[in-house]
Amino acid sequence: MATAATQVPAVIPITTPSVATADPAAPAATPAIRSFITRLSDTLRRSTSDLKPWPEMVDRSAISRPASLSEATSRLRKNLSYFRVNYTAIVALSLALSLVTHPVSLFLLLSLLAAWSFLYLFRPADPPLTLFGRTFSDRETLGGLVLVSVIVIFMTSVGSLIISAITVGALLVCIHGALRVPEDLFLDEPDQQGGAAAGLLSFLGGAASSVASAAPVVASRV
């Protein structure tokens, strides 16, 4: 007697697509860094648009000795307002040359900036910082960075190098501003009344505002 063979259906393997889960230990996206770079590039672009031609700045026919201290002060005030971006570039160049010729100080300064950037400014608040098997709170991280900054700037050659470089650049700016006759410069009256302080510090102020806006986490963590 023949029995009907029951046919067992073949089992079709079903693969479930794996869903990528975010690793909490992986570095999170850093929109603050992108925002900082964007704002800084915009500030640089706006500032360099006011850069005056260098041949106009070093025109020898417009160089003369001032007759008095008041005339030198007046020239300096007008030239600071007109050549503010050029003067900022001179101070920055003096600082850059000083750091390049002192590689140890340059390495220390770059290491300090990198520590601030990756350990506090642009690091996400969660998870907390863990180094050498120990977890550090935000206050401990901030305190450690401040302490290291004081040591690097005031107990090494970095601080004196920065101060001397800025002093040399400012001295060059003052000498040029006092010797350059500004009569041929197209100065607006509001620019003259604005004075040297707002003119020379406008570039640095824009960069500082970029840093402040890109890293609001500093105030929220303290």
Automatic annotation (TrEMBL):
Transmembrane segments: 82-100, 106-122, 142-175, 195-219
BP terms from Gene Ontology: vesicle-mediated transport
GO cellular component terms listed in the entry, alphabetical order: endoplasmic reticulum; Golgi apparatus; membrane
Membrane topology: Multi-pass membrane protein
Entry keywords, A to Z: Membrane, Transmembrane, Transmembrane helix, Transport
Subcellular location: Membrane
Keyword DNA repair (UniProt): no
Known function: May be involved in both secretory and endocytic intracellular trafficking in the endosomal/prevacuolar compartments.
Protein family: Belongs to the PRA1 family.
UniProt-listed PANTHER family: PRENYLATED RAB ACCEPTOR 1-RELATED, PRENYLATED RAB ACCEPTOR PROTEIN 1
Stated name of the protein: PRA1 family protein
Source organism of this protein record: Rhynchospora tenuis
